[in-house]
Each structure stands twice: as C-alpha cells, then as structure tokens.
Design a protein that fits this description.
The chain is mainly α. It has one domain (about 1-20, about 30-145): Skp domain (Protein Binding, DinI Protein, Chain A), CATH 3.30.910. It has six helices and three strands. Helix 1 (about 1-15) packs across helix 5 (about 75-115), helix 4 (about 50-70) runs antiparallel to helix 5 (about 75-115) and helix 5 (about 75-115) packs across helix 6 (about 135-145).
Length: about 150
C-alpha cells in the first residue's frame, strides 16, 4: 500500500508543479529554464517521513475496516462497494496529509526560481538536454522556510 501511496504522491506532485500558464508558455529568448526532480524534493521534505508513517497507519486501519465490513456482508456487490468506499476514504486522507507538504514545496520552488531569475520550471525527467537543476536548492529552501519535523 505504501508503493501505491508513493505513486499517488508523485502523480499529485507532478500535477501541482505543472502550472498551466507556465506549462503552456512557449519559451522566448529571454526565458531561463529550470529543472527539478519533484519526487526527490517531496521525499526530502522534513515532514515526509512522518507523513508516510501516518499514511501507513491509516492504510492499515482502512484495510482492516474494509475487511471487517466485507466479512459481515453477504452480497458481493455490497462488499465491493464497501471496499471502494474505504479506498476513497484513504485517498482523501492521503490528500489531506500530503497537501501541506506539496504547498511547502511549491513555495520553495517559486522562491528559488525567483531568486535565480528562472521563468519556467520543468520536471527533470521530461528534459533531455539543458535547464538549470534547482532540486538541491529547493530542498535547502524547504529547510530555510523553517519547516521542522
């Protein structure tokens, strides 16, 4: 379940970092492009480890709730619905727990980009050549933002 949570986190991070007006903008000669490994930024966030532990606990609880509810239910359709409901509850909890971490990361990316005069930030894995890698700078900015475990 942790791998699933990490995959969801990575997908959410990608969505949050790709701001539509930036992602759709064609670079002009004056644009400076930065690249970032958003997964590394999120996993290096000071609160990430605690968030994953919390998510593991919630995941175990929801799995147990789903198992108990499904064991009591005789109708297979109803069982499937109960399991789906628990999975949706888990997804909401994942979003609630990860949202502050993602917001912190967004702020750090914006701060570093502004300080370095970068106008476009792309996911590092999507860029074959070029771009200024700001991953470590963003991780350091997260620490300077006063985020504590």
């Amino acid at each position: 379940m942790l791998n699933k949570a990490l995959l969801i986190v990575v997908l959410l991070v990608g969505l949050f970092f790709l701001v539509p007006e930036i992602a759709c903008a064609a670079p002009s000669t004056g644009d400076k492009i930065g690249v970032i490994d958003s997964q590394m930024v999120i996993t290096k966030h000071p609160k990430f480890e605690d968030a994953m532990k919390e998510l593991q606990g919630i995941s175990r609880k929801k799995e147990e709730e789903a198992r108990v509810a499904a064991d009591r239910e005789k109708d297979d359709t109803r069982k499937a619905m109960l399991i789906r409901e628990k999975r949706m509850e888990l997804a909401k909890e994942e979003q609630r727990i990860m949202e502050p971490i993602i917001q912190d990361a967004q702020l750090a990316v914006r701060t570093v980009a502004k300080n370095k005069g970068l106008t476009i930030i792309l996911e590092k894995a999507s860029v074959y050549v070029g771009g200024i890698d700001i991953t470590e700078d963003v991780i350091q900015q997260l620490r300077r933002q006063g985020i504590r475990k």
